[in-house]
Specification:
Layout (H helix, E strand, L loop, with lengths): L1 H8 L1 H4 L6 E5 L10 H6 L5 E4 L11 H13 L1 H9 L2 E3 L3 H4 L11 H11 L16 E5 L6 E5 L10 E5 L2 E5 L10 H12 L5 E5 L18 H13 L5 E5 L5 E6 L1 H4 L5 E6 L25 E8 L6 E8 L4 E8 H6 L2
Parallel strand pairs: 1-2, 2-3, 5-8, 8-9, 9-11
Antiparallel strand pairs: 1-12, 4-5, 6-7, 10-11, 12-13, 13-14
Helix pairs in contact: 4-7
Bound molecules: fe (ii) ion.
Length: about 350
């Protein structure tokens, strides 16, 4: 806890060190953990990104939520891990309080307070000053600056359309111009963040941004917002950017080609979900990079090479034991030449 606190307090110090390795993961039940944080600790990552469903609170009772966070922070491997490795987090529906919930969830303020407490956000942290939990961080020296943008896909998200198709609950695209994923204030904040100088940006969204085909939560359920996201990246000429997500109880890497998103590079998304429970089926879809799907318990490892003019990013999915399930190289030198 001391060290996490130190990340916020000593950011000028850490800001001087290039970040070359991060680990990430999502969907974690402390009582089902058989030691994944021991495996991740061995990676010697400089940061860990908790990408949502960090607890399965699922309650409108503040005490229940608080107890679940207590169980997380008391899990022995995680407690030891976070003494060594700073943890930064966003949330998803289960730590927000209700499955697939959006802006109408009544208890979002108490959930946010508990989230900030559990992840040691200082009392004067910028994220605490406005509704929601979105926040960002820039680490590393000029030329090697890594920006981490943690989106809040819960607090402002308008209602979705859900139907039963073949007796399975399925979300349909909500195309109303009022429909929103991030809400007005967070969109404005994101635009201002994307104008800050950075050499690589990682944008963390609990729910998948690129996925289009599956029936669960995804940005594609709000197609205007998804299009707006790509337009914002284009308009602000954001430079090297990679997306990260969780939620799905599977691992995969997706790619949206430059000619599809209009950016001067292909947009990649690493989804790592299921640190203690996984197994979602391999529904085929065109955006997935072949052989990156895993149904097994997984975490993500992101290695960044800063030696060239642009970053080279390796996106790996690793098993409970630390075995590489897939590795995808995103070289922004090549990317920049793509026309
Ligand atoms: Fe989950």
């Amino acid at each position: 806890m001391k060290f996490i606190f130190a990340l916020f307090c000593l950011s000028p110090l850490l800001a001087e060190q290039p970040i070359t390795r991060l680990a990430c993961g999502s969907c974690y039940k402390a009582h089902r953990d058989k030691g994944i944080f021991k495996t991740i600790a061995a990676e010697q990552a400089q940061l860990f990104l908790f990408m949502g469903d960090n607890i399965y609170g699922d309650s409108e009772d503040e005490e229940v939520m608080r107890e679940k966070y207590r169980q997380l922070n008391a899990q022995p491997d995680y407690a030891a891990f976070k003494e060594q490795v700073p943890v930064l987090a966003t949330w998803d529906d289960h730590d927000y309080g209700r499955n697939d919930a959006g802006r109408d969830f009544t208890f979002k303020e108490s959930s946010a307070r508990l989230f900030f407490e559990a992840f040691d956000f200082p009392q004067d942290h910028e994220a605490r000053k406005s509704p929601g939990i979105y926040h960002s961080k820039i680490l590393g020296p000029t030329g090697k600056r890594l920006q981490l943008i943690f989106l809040d896909t819960r607090s402002f998200r308008s209602p979705l359309i859900q139907v039963k198709k073949n007796r399975r609950k399925t979300y349909l695209p909500q195309k109303s111009p009022e429909a929103t994923m991030l809400g007005k204030a967070q969109w404005a904040w994101l635009a201002s963040e994307l104008q800050k100088p950075a050499d690589l940006r990682l944008i963390i969204s609990s729910v998948q941004i690129l996925a289009t085909d599956h029936r669960f939560e995804k940005w594609a359920n709000l197609p205007n917002e998804r299009a707006r996201f790509f337009k914002l990246l284009r308009d602000l000429n954001v430079g090297p950017t990679v997306l990260l997500s969780g939620d799905r109880h599977l691992g995969e890497v997706a790619r949206l080609f430059h000619h599809q998103c209009g950016l001067p590079f292909d947009l990649y998304e690493l989804t790592s979900s299921g640190m203690t429970h996984a197994g979602a089926p391999e529904d085929p879809w065109a955006g997935r990079i072949p052989n990156t799907y895993t149904k097994h318990i997984n975490y993500g490892l992101i290695d960044i090479t800063w030696t060239g003019k642009k970053p080279i990013v390796s996106l790996s999915l690793k098993s409970f034991k630390g075995e590489v399930q897939s590795s995808t190289i995103v070289d922004f030198h090549e990317q920049a030449q793509v026309k």
